[in-house]
DNA sequence: ATGAAAGCGCTAACAG
DNA sequence: CTGTTAGCGCTTTCAT
């Protein structure tokens, strides 16, 4: 049933080495030979056995993508971008979900399945700085996400502080000054929430707008309902505000809903900007202004770095790449 | 660097066959030998080389999941379920997106990457009945989704007609009689839209409620904005209705938004039910009643069938499995 | 219950 | 420019 190199070689009247050379695009082959081989390959429907190639070459041609959860639109879209980038490099992508859980992240790293990959893209969430020293990556790894997490790997991240600052400045430019920071986490410093809050503060300071504790609200775990609840509580408490910087788009959707229910207009009464620029932001009503954190750039860069490491640059110093972000202006801020 | 069976065998003072037996859980091994081997495995941190195993055994231990688009929450969640089910069987999952496009579906099937899988789960969208005769699946395939698409493979699908009928009946039981079918497609018969419309008709007929053309509205491509637009047009046209059966949840979210904007209460003025039961249905406001089409059952069954085929039941007749659905009642229908 | 040895299909030295 | 050949690490007869 399965056709091997040997059979192709026999059919083409050459040695298997020549067939291998043709298949792998080796340069110095006479046109006649190449044609004969290509014909035999086509006639027999030859397809290389990837396990054999992998055993011999030490490469599988696959990379692993380890993320918290595909249910989260940000990660689903990131996975899509990674798959697109990987296919440019001829790499297959297999995905592992961790639930953002420390124990599961460790379990996935230790899993024998990971050895099917030449390298992994690992979006760390549960592991923390303290684990950095202990954790052993089973294969070449590129880290995704905002944590620093030691230096044992290349790292691709987003400009959380700068993007958050720009988001806040965008609202300030609209003439808003009572801006809610929706999704802040009081005790977090180095995670997304901490960094985005820092950008928020910087923008306020630069504009000379006082920072008000009552406008900084927690809304864990950043689901739609959390955004709605938080905004409802603000309204109930009589806290005045004219803009919301939501730390992710999902929170923003919830906030918009709560504002609508309260009869407030977006952006007339309250302008809103989100973060992530998920697909749905284009389709919400009103369409949501958001920060595109550079998802495609993150995916492409991460895959490129990983492919390069796999290709052999193991001596290069580790790289930290911060993707460029941009504000995507839509109806929710008057665009 | 990499530890092989040979080294483990040397360390344990046995042959590589014995080590292999221990690792693969072969029965007849003395306790002392097993312990010695396990100790050596642990000490040396041995991990099997999956390419070598694959070459020898003819199995890679991976399956492919071919779907239209991870951006679509239904497929993102399906992928999550598939990965969970696959990991029960010790299988890795790699994902390929097709964009639901016929050409890309063919390209993916022909891709050498597919040969990295022992089998694939293929959610067909672009290929149609006419392709059924021509298409060659590169490996064992289980089809996902509502199309019949020939009989050259096992097939796992959902009860579209029955579920749609139940959804409509649920609205009728609430006392509603002017029920919008949101997302119908006039000329489609065998796709989801056609089947769901059929269930809708059946429910109306059974209840003696007249079928009204003006309540059946197209809203392609089933995005949130399409649902909102369609509902707005209905309202503008003065078409009275007291319920909406949305053919997917995203349409339902859009519809709810448009109703809210128009000052109509859900479910007071208009009850709404969706289809898919995506995660977001729990978090929308109001929370959306929806049809769970049996996503987990679909994933588990498909993986189980595929694993069985891979395991060797190639002579078994092809199976058609229709997953059980259920209505998940939430606020949007007064739950 | 354990060992010896063949060979899965491919790539890459090394020859010629 | 092309052919010969030696393994990659594992599973699996076939012996013992």
UniProtKB/TrEMBL annotation, chains A, B:
Give the originating organism: Herbiconiux daphne
Reply yes or no: does the keyword GTP-binding apply: no
Give the matching Gene3D superfamilies. 3.40.50.2300, lambda repressor-like DNA-binding domains (1.10.260.40)
One Pfam family for this entry, by name? LacI
Name the InterPro entries for this protein. HTH_LacI, LacI/GalR-like_sensor, Lambda_DNA-bd_dom_sf, Peripla_BP_I
Could you list this entry's UniProt keywords, alphabetically sorted: DNA-binding, Transcription, Transcription regulation
All copies of domain HTH lacI-type, residue ranges: 3-57
The molecule here is called LacI family transcriptional regulator
Tell whether Transcription regulation is among the UniProt keywords.
yes
């Amino acid at each position: 049933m399965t056709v091997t190199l040997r059979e192709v070689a026999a059919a083409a009247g050459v040695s298997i080495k020549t067939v291998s050379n043709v298949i792998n695009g080796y340069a110095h082959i006479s046109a006649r030979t190449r044609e004969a081989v290509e014909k035999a390959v086509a006639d027999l429907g030859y397809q290389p056995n990837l396990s054999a190639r992998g055993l011999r070459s030490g490469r599988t041609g696959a990379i692993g993508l380890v993320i918290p959860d595909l249910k989260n639109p940000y990660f689903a879209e990131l996975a899509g971008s990674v798959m697109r980038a990987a296919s440019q490099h001829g790499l297959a992508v297999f995905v592992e979900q961790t639930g953002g859980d420390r124990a599961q992240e460790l379990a996935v790293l230790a899993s024998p399945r990971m050895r099917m990959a030449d390298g992994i893209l690992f979006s760390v969430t549960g592991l923390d700085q303290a684990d950095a020293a202990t954790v052993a990556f089973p294969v070449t790894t590129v880290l995704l996400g905002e944590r620093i997490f030691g230096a044992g790997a290349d790292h691709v991240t987003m400009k959380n502080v700068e993007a958050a600052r720009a988001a806040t400045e965008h609202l300030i430019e609209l003439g808003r000054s009572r801006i809610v920071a929706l999704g802040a986490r009081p005790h977090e410093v180095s995670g997304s929430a901490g960094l985005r809050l820092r950008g928020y503060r910087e923008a306020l300071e630069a504009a000379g707008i006082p920072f008000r504790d009552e406008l900084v609200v927690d809304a864990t775990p950043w689901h739609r309902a959390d955004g709605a609840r938080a905004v409802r509580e603000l309204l109930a408490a009589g806290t005045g505000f004219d803009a919301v910087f939501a730390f992710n788009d999902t929170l923003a959707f919830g906030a918009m809903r709560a504002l609508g229910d309260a009869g407030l207009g977006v952006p007339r009464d309250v302008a809103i900007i989100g973060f992530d620029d998920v697909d749905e932001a284009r389709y919400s009503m009103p369409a949501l202004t958001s920060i595109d954190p550079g998802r495609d750039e993150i995916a492409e860069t991460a895959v490129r770095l990983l492919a390069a490491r796999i290709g052999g640059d193991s001596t290069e110093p580790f790289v930290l790449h911060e993707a460029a972000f941009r504000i995507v202006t839509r109806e929710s801020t008057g665009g």
